[in-house]
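Changelog entry: the histidine kinase record was regenerated in this release. Current contents:
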Amino acid sequence: MNIKTLILIIINSLIALVIALLSFSSYKQFSNVLNDRILLQLNSIKTLKQNQIEHILKSDWERFEASELYSQNIDTTVLILPDSIKKSNGIHDFTAYHVDKKTTIGFISNSTKGTRIKIFDYNKIKKILLERTGMGDSGESYLVGEDFHMRSQSRFYPNKTPYTLYVKTKGVTNAFKGINGRGVFEDYRGIEVYSVYSLIIVGKMKMVILSEIDVEEVTIPLKQLKERLVGLTLGIFLLAVMLSLFLTRFITNPIKNMQKSLRIMAEGDYNQTNEFIKNSKEIKEMFDALANLKASLQGAVKFSDDIGKMNLQTDFKPKSSNDLLGKSLLAMRDKLIEFRNNEENTRIQSKRMLVNGLEDERRRLSRELHDGVGPYLTSLKHYIENRVKNELKKAEMKKIVDDTISEIRLMSNALMPASIDDFGIGVTLTNFIESLKKSTTVTIEYEDLTQQERSNITNHQAINLFRITQELINNSLKHADAKNIRITLSEFDEFISLFYFDDGIGFDIRTVKLGLGIINIKERVEICNGTITIHAVPGNTTFEIELPIEL
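Regenerated structure tokens:
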């Protein structure tokens, strides 16, 4: 093998290796990110639809139970219910008892006045499932009953009765086993899909909800990327071959000149000595350049490997202002850093939305308890005072009602203290701790250093500070065996500080398996863009939390 061929093989092999590594790393990373994003989006869609379906069913059931109508709105010629079902109170799936197997959900309530049966308006659920925002061209959400027959209309078989479609896929089987999850597998059509699934249990009704989208549709960008990478790789490789052929002419010419000079010298003509020395210098420079090229390529390969492993803090300097490969690698690293930062921001935003949704639901439940159930109990108390003649029974009934009212107030305050919107976090924590002191022997000292009239603490921060304090006190009372607790909430111009101390048994933060309480605290601090410092030793456990002022 001559030197020209050898050089061609070495240079082009190195270039091909670098291109292959970069292409594979980029394709793999893009594929993983795409899979995660699709499954995350499907899970959000599925969770939203599940919550909407459960809410509608529970709301209609509550209205049904509260109504005093005892007529049955069912057609016994098309819906034949066994006595065992009629005697079972709750929400039921009647589909199997329908003559035409039409999807039917109903309510049954038995009382001394008789049996009431009502058919739920299934169009409400159908409207939720048919909402396909964010699901592409092939996405759909559907329900499957315990008998593995579909309970909602398939968008792919619009003329078929849902019950005629038998759906015993991996997702449905796992969901009925109590396993909620996600994955890529075949759906009821035998087509590979991205799927997320979970079990809906409302009353006596069990169904699986699935949100899916075809793999073929999702992977279109991957196929396009693959084609572009293949084309780019071939183009670069061909360009590299042409450049290497051109370069080998410059590399082999000095060697030929040296060979010519040596042949002349072998014939006894030493007048060519200067030319020989010149050629020797060029050969040395050629191999020095080759060594530099090899070192440069090794650096690029190592850097690309680090990027593939998401080690984005690795430093890399281009060999010169013309080092296009080095600049491309640095640009790729910067893009990946930007993407990871955006992903982290998205993750924190998702947690924030989840926590905000949870707090909104707690606020709604608190309002329902206070404004809904409370007046009914108060009316019941007045009724007892004015209508019940037996003083002993009246006293007993009033005590039960008063205890119930107190318990509902405690529940409402625990879900969402009304004072947090009206008076702020400082007053809310004061009231909460004063109430807590009545039911515990632990000494709790609280110092409120917030600005009462011109406070810059947002409602979002106030709610999270309240939940964090709740969790810390709960941990101290349940697990720490503490005798004394000190809490200080301070508000400064640029940040809010929460200091928490107890003299309990502490824990080793390096070895202890942190429970959901500590995790929840850290997540709430994170979504508020704050910092947390934990020191946990026997007799001196402290949490120092700082949240920035949001202007």
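The CA atoms of residues 352 and 358 lie 10 Å apart.
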